[in-house]
Amino acid sequence: MSSSPSFGLCRKKLEDAGFAVEEIAIIPRPTTLPTGLEAWLDTFAEDFLGALPVPDRARARAEVADLLRPVLMDETRTWIADYVRLRFRAIRAE
Question: What is the mean pLDDT of residues 4-15?
């Protein structure tokens, strides 16, 4: 089981919503982005990028890539998303 701040926050949110948490884990799932970060943004960030005027979207994607390159690109120039999986078992507290 993880001890990261996110772990405690997830547990608290469940408990505040009236659940008794039996198990909870945050599992790192680094995921290679074979088509690059900008293609990933096209797929998964449409809600955010779609709010921008069309001519500004490419510049926004490029800026996001520039900001994340030091964190999400490895030494082989491969983009790796730092996904995590949240698994929990909780029952409605009585």
Answer: 82
Query: What tokens does 14 get?
Result: 């469940």
- Cα separation, 8 vs 15, in Å, equals 10
Classify each residue of 40-56 as buried b or exposed e, where b means 16 or more C-beta atoms within 10 Å of its C-beta.
bbeeebeeebeeeeeee
Q: Which two tokens stand for residue 45?
A: 């960030």
pLDDT score for 34: 95
User: Tokens 């709010």 label which residue?
Assistant: 51
C-alpha span between 93 and 87 (Å, rounded): 18
Helix (H) or strand (E) holding 73: none
Start-to-end C-alpha separation, the chain? 25
pTM: 0.69
